Amino acid sequence: MIRFVILFSAFITFAYSEDCDVRNFPDGTVCVCSANYCDTVPSLDVSIGKYQVYSTSKSKLGFSSKTGLFSTQDPAQNVDNVKVDRSIKHQTIIGFGGAFTDSTGINIQSLPTEAQDKLMESYFGKSGIEYNLGRVPIGGTDFSTRAYSYDDFPLDTTLMKFALQPEDLNYKIPFIRKANILTNNKLNLFASAWTAPPWMKTNNDWHGIGFLQTKYYQLWADYMIKFLEVYDKSGISFWGLTTQNEPIDGFLPKALEKLSSMGWTPAQMALYVSSVGSCGLEPASLANEKNV
């Protein structure tokens, strides 16, 4: 939650964020988000010749603001100069955001309703930092209180028993809906899976060294489509879909890693994407989704 700019200035003034309930920790000081207060970002004052910077550091409270005037003279001597050619474009920044994990929902839900509203506003609202991206796990993660998928019934190759879990209904969907409202439905969501159900994997386990069995490549794509379709019925559509969360974790033995995971080599990933990515993830009902 840091926004910063490095500029030369001739004059700087300081204006700090509103009074807050200060809480000190070994690594710094924070403002407690409550029913009465949550960090917001004051409106910018960037008239010609001025700049404004918001920053957070160990020594200052969140969203400390400083303004100043651009200098017409650069006092620095014998320094390297950086020239930017604005006609050459590189990567586009789509936005900034966070993840709607189980632990996110559990922690937000533990707050009073008024504090929940202020917290969501501080992240997604006009008076906050206006997140416009959200990552949604497909099933359980290391931020869950248990390991789970949407079809924990071995050999259910038709996915007839596929179903969302209480975590989706209680911790993910409600807060995604709130974020959508605060962003006027401009929130771009993308989904990521930590692992397939164990029965689809070579090691038949949530973690440890394990890979998706080749015979289940299309079924795994169907599983993802099911997830997107069920969420779509809940009024939540997705902008993108990733093939896997941290595939390297699937190469770690259980003794070293307890994270729900599934491994992919580059060759395996290429085979999977080429075999199902071009057609297996493009049903008519999900025409707007993008594979990331």
UniProtKB/TrEMBL annotation:
The keyword Manganese does not apply. Transmembrane segments: none annotated. GO terms for cellular component: membrane. The keyword Signal applies. It catalyses: a beta-D-glucosyl-(1<->1')-N-acylsphing-4-enine + H2O = an N-acylsphing-4-enine + D-glucose. Residues 1-17 form the signal peptide. Keywords: Glycosidase, Hydrolase, Lipid metabolism, Signal, Sphingolipid metabolism. InterPro entries: GH, Glyco_hydro_30, Glyco_hydro_30_TIM-barrel. Its EC number is 3.2.1.45. Residues 93-268 form the Glycosyl hydrolase family 30 TIM-barrel domain. GO terms for biological process: glucosylceramide catabolic process. It holds the Pfam family Glyco_hydro_30. One of its GO terms (molecular function) is glucosylceramidase activity. Belongs to the glycosyl hydrolase 30 family. This is Glucosylceramidase. It comes from Rhamnusium bicolor.
